[in-house]
């Protein structure tokens, strides 16, 4: 089982760089960040981090092809790959629907999966060949070329997926893997992997060779109660982007979350957190002591065939940045990276 760090780049940049260096030293597979306007720019951050690290892989999970033109994603990836000596990779998706709404984009009118599949072809072609001529439904190019060339023979490109089943199947068939965000139950991962496997087999690929990642809200520490409270502070914010089908696969009635989603949608984060019950928060996160977190990964995620856990670490500074709440006694991000390395990684080896 691989373990990676999903960094929300909302800390002071020197602190984020220090955390990426620590994750590299501790043996984490990758550091990912969301390519979203809400946060500091991941491409600039990772360009600097590339020169301060040796082994850790770097890239977006996810980059939104509705907002970022796919040839520019390819250009940035190839540049990051050269800077890092061949350690860049990317996860593509249509984008966070909440963010798209703030851009005045109705995602239901964007044909999201068709757009992502075409964008994947564009990024793959430009990375592999350095030039593209293409006439598609969403993107068109006449002899477009770039001098930005990757070091790796093949830069890994994966798809992000939540709803399914077609998005999971497309990831298995067309890309190098799938990062499935915000699921926590054996049922949810069995569903995702079943469809990833079907897509891979349609393309004549061994599904076990794919990177199948679980992107999870995560908080750990020696004080279980405080870690779970930190996760609760973020669960509603993330859960508001979960499709109803996914909520049900995670044992949550969408009606149970409707007041939370409405409060967060109205900008009342404090009320949204108050309405997120500890029971829902526990269902929609991996949080607690390292032993508790390892047990949930072992019983709910690993049996499906998931081979990669991507920890979106929540600490007191992140909670404060998002909500203004002060949570004393919650382990900071670096301490949580150490706990994952010392206790959870060995338990899942």
What report would you give on this structure?
The structure is a single chain. The protein is an alpha/beta fold and 349 residues long. Helix content is 49%, strand content 18%. The protein is built from 15 helices and eleven strands. The protein has helices at 13-26, 42-50, 70-84, 97-102, 112-129, 166-174, 186-202, 224-239, 244-249, 254-265, 269-275, 278-283, 290-301, 316-323, 333-347; strands at 2-7, 30-33, 57-64, 90-93, 131-135, 140-145, 157-161, 177-181, 211-220, 286-288, 308-313. The strands form two sheets. An eight-stranded parallel β-barrel has the order 1-2-3-4-7-8-9-11, surrounded by nine helices. Strands 5-6 form a two-stranded antiparallel sheet. Helix 3 (70-84) links the parallel strand 3 (57-64) and strand 4 (90-93). Helix 1 (13-26) crosses helix 2, helix 6 (166-174) packs across helix 7 (186-202) and helix 13 crosses helix 15. The longest helix has 18 residues, at 112-129. The protein is globular, with a radius of gyration of 19 Å. The mean pLDDT is 95.
Q: Identify the quaternary structure here.
A: single chain
What is the helix fraction of residues, given as a range?
Answer: 40-55%
| Lateral arrangement of strands in the main beta sheet | 1-2-3-4-7-8-9-11
Main beta sheet, described?
A: 8 strands, parallel, barrel
Beta strands, count: 11
> How many angstroms does the end-to-end distance come to?
6 Å
Fraction of residues in β-strands: 15-25%
**Radius of gyration from CA coordinates:** 19 Å
Structural class: alpha/beta
Low-pLDDT ranges: none
